[in-house]
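Researcher: Let's run the pair from yesterday's discussion. Sequence first, then tokens, for each.
Model: Starting with the first of the pair.
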Amino acid sequence: MDKAMVQTTLKIINPVADGAADQADAERHPAAKRPKTLDGKRIGLYWNGKNNGDIALRMVQDKLAKRFKNVTFNFIVGENGGITRYASPAQLDMMKQEIDVCIATTADCGSCTSWLIRDMCELERRGIATVGYTAEVFDEDAHFSCKTFGVPEACPVIVPQTFTNRTEPELQKLVDDSFEKVIEGLTKDREAMAALPQFEHVVIGQAPELDYDGLDQLDAWDNMTTDFIKRGWSDGMPLVPPTPEKVAAMIKASGRPGDEVVGKFAPGFGIGTVSKIAANAVMAGCKPAAMPVIMAMMDCALDASIGLRTWAMSTGPQFPLVLVSGAITKEIGMNSGVCALGPGSISQVNVSIGRALRLIMMNVGHSYPGVSDMDTIGSAGKFSACVAENEARNPWKPYRVEQGFDASESTVTINVPYGQTEFFDFHNSDAEKLIENFATVTSNACASPNSGMWLIKKGGPRDSGYPFNGLFQNLIMMCPEHAQVFADAGWSTDDIKMKLYKQSKMPFGKLMLNKPQDLFTTLHPKMTWLLDRPETEVPVYNGPECFDIIVVGGDAGRSLFFIGGTHSVTKAIRRV
């Protein structure tokens, strides 16, 4: 804008956090020394469980065996996880002793890119030259992860397409066309980068405060909004300017210093100060009264067991669903009844809290759509998903009490589903028939990766940052009318969960349709008889604990089933 036309300046707090990897004291490791030839080498073929990656590795093995002399191969499957698997520390140490170089597959979704690159960087740190097949669409994502995990010179091998859903001739062409890049990546030393790579499509790192000029305050705000969209800092909707005054009020409401570091937020390990969290909460439309809820929400998101990095980067439509229970819901004006998930003025507090989490994930955690959030299609739930428990209509103990907290406390819970569908039933007042109807929804094969995941999943430590080591808890937002039917029959929430578990069954063959058979046979060698009896019905879920229930909403028999992506993490709200 021509300076002569400037009538006013809008000053705001920069909401974008610095990344830990960009700090001067960040831990950084060089790539491993490369051998000049692969002759006589012990070659690791590492598969992270992603579909068709094992087939591609066998094709690479055939080509290497023809090209080099006296090579030996060690086929290794990531020890922990489900379809996306990762190596345990013991496995990584074993590979250090048993292989010289490694070829890894496959980085062809957002979260599996992050985890495969993590494993590659761990191997590079141990002195093992490693390459990892990465689909072109995840190129920027992969290099971002290399920097995040401290080995920016690690070597993704970029191929034009994903390995998933490919025929064997298509896989063979991808392997053939990239073979020389694999050899080069394993035998040519990686030069140290003069400067760390940065996002190509998002601007990170600016002054603590930003100025926007305009003909008036509205024009200046419009210029801010346009610039935020250009930089990638916006969720696509108009934002409240995070002015110093508004941010200061939010910080004061937190009861903590603005420069206090709450945590490093995945996937970019952005340094999340109270000030950065407050700025994004202001942009979302939150008022200071909501700040204690937002800070407890941060505690949930930073809990290692919920695996923020995985679902923040996934190609799946996972979104954080926020549940608030306790007296604070009424104090700050949250909606627990009709349209509790929005939209509308009656749910403004709910919507702004949910929106704040998304903006914090983006601008503090650097989970930016199309860059590090690689969701195949996306979800409207990613804009905002936040409700309050309808405690007045709950015939059982309050949700927070069932989670182990005192009734006098208020709590925040985050569950991260893949999507939602309705439990529609206006007809049944018989609890047995109502649960039978519910089970027609919970019995599914491909609504999310959690359906039948127990067939191929091996859990690891819950503090690893990988969410699938815990339970997949399918959240049920039960409307008051359905809750009352069950309560009148004398059923507890535990009774409902057990009934759903027992009735959620499917033929084994159908449940395995979208799963690699090798993972099943490796994990359950004594159950391979099911391969010859695909009609045998098996449970869809691990157990009744795979369901979580909270009473929400108004009248009419419409409950919601949220298809599980993580377990529920609950934290107490700390009052100022």
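Model: Moving on to the second of the pair.
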Amino acid sequence: MKQFRIEEHPILDVPELEQVSFYFNREKYLARKGEMISSALIANGINVFGHHHKDGSAQGIFCANGQCAKCTVIANGIAVKSCMTPVKENMIVHSAEGLPELAEDSTPMDFGPVDELSCDVLIIGGGPAGLSAATELGKHGVDTLLIDDKNALGGKLVLQTHKFFGSEEDSRAGTRGHHIGQILANDLKQFPSVRTWLNSTALFVFSDQKVGILKDGKYILVKPKRILNAAGAREKFLRFPGNKLARIYGAGAFQTLVNRDLVRPTKRLFIVGGGNVGLIAGYHALQAGIEVVGLAEAMPVCGGYKVHADKLRRFGVPIYTSHSILCANGDETVESVTITAVDRNFKAIAGSEKSFSCDTILIAVGLDSLSEFTLEAEMAGIPVDSAGDALEIAEASSAMFNGKIAGLKIAKAMLGDTVEDIPQSWYAKAEVLKAHPGMIKTYQDIPAKSGVMPIIHCLQEIPCNPCTTVCPTNSIQTEDGTLFALPRYTGECIGCGKCLLICPGLAITLVDYRKDEALPSVTIAYEIGNMAVKVGDTRMLMDIEANELGVFEVTGVTEYKKQHTALVRFAVPAELARKVAGFRVQAPELSVALDHAVIPERIADDAMICLCERVSVGEVRALIRKGINDINQIKAITRAGMGPCGAKTCEVMIKSLLREEGIPTKNVVPNTKRPIFVEVPLCVFPAGGK
């Protein structure tokens, strides 16, 4: 039986894990012990987990984070989210077909007392912000409980195989994200005042100032003196015909599969969204040996860092700016995608449609802060702070630093003048780390054509400085000495290549004229090791804009196993040497559009706005045009938002539709939130689920 697993990865170790048997729809399969049901199913080539009870359409995964309900299956007679439920030996799993009959539970309910405990500070979320805050609290001996709903700390850091931007001093720039997660988690172990609970989900902050937590299936009440909401964010979805097909993933789900669980969920991927998340996901796909057909971004330029977009383009991934998805095409699962050019008002331009063969679409169109716990704590009268994406959507480097600030702020609030004041420089650094990309400038003019020198292809102002910290001759400095300014070569290079190895954007090459000024050596950092490069191979060299410079032979390859990076050398004519920014790894023919665009008769209003209850855009638009601007009334009429995800996916899209119909945000009556964060079986509440 074929397994769709990653057996070799250029960055990640592929461990040999114990296997267990489980059954899906009466067929026996193998899984890795402890992996989630969803990952085990996809690793066995199963992408349709069931069919919706309203229209029979296929169900799969979208978020892999417990936020939606598309991946629901029946495991040992209980409806569960497959992305949050680990496989167990001989587990009996069935697809959720229609409205399934669940096994009767005759267990008597014991309505005895629920276990309670107290703490000074409760941190909800063990990602970069939560871990950084917990470390500061631990340093000051504050009684802290940190909870996270996953089986390992690190949050989204666990999914990041690329080197981080930001400050080397304050956010470990130049270190890979998954290593940063391990470092932060290990650092926390030295502080006995900080307890950590894994597999623990905060359900609600109650008016009696207690927080209901589901820990390993047991319900516990925690009464904190303060709360830090570091729960992160959830991914936004999009309205387009075909958005109910299986194999439409959020970026987090895709990265969870390939980088955490080492599952290869697709052969041909198309990405919608050109922010950092979408651009980085495309790079992660290449590292996993997946063909990236293309990327569509509705804005005229990608919103992510230019070095990310440049890198993807020169590797051979086309980026279609001022384009958006028109529809996803297929029977049960994605078979192709159609994109269209859009005008300045983001309206489709007729006749510009292009269709591409792909089996998976990745949606990376932004995040929505998980603000529920902050609002609930405020209503309950508990002092509450937020950090990371729960405070403001930004890069993980920013989340680490503002988590550090939040931790020290809370420590001072708890302990008073025994805790030092937060330096004003920290607040200034926090503003820089969360700053959007700045100006794009031209290349540095270096007249000399002798010796050896770095060519810096990082032309956009972003918060990043690791190249300035590793140069042994101190020859790279930012223009004005600040974190946000462009790095420039200002000294005497010795050709060590350290700046190439640490650059998160792979945006530095080394040109060496010492042996041959007419045919200098150009060295390029390369870390897609599963697409091997060896001496004697030929590659198409590309400039920063992915223009072809010609095919040249590889003259040397030096592997740096600790950095999981190779330095690849080419001999290139002097007139081209400084233009070389990289080489193509993906053949152009992989991204050729189909001969004819697939434009089904379906219209935009056929798209689903509520995937749980299968409510279409057209149904909600008709109510808005009748004058309804109360999301609760829309919910009562259509059931949009009444499904198991609790409006986590559809609420943002309904608000977007209201804006599109000309309803000012101030006039919209907001949705009344469901009283618990995620759906929970009733049996866990009596006596704490004992």
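Researcher: Give me one sentence on the second I can quote.
Model: The chain has a mean pLDDT of 93.
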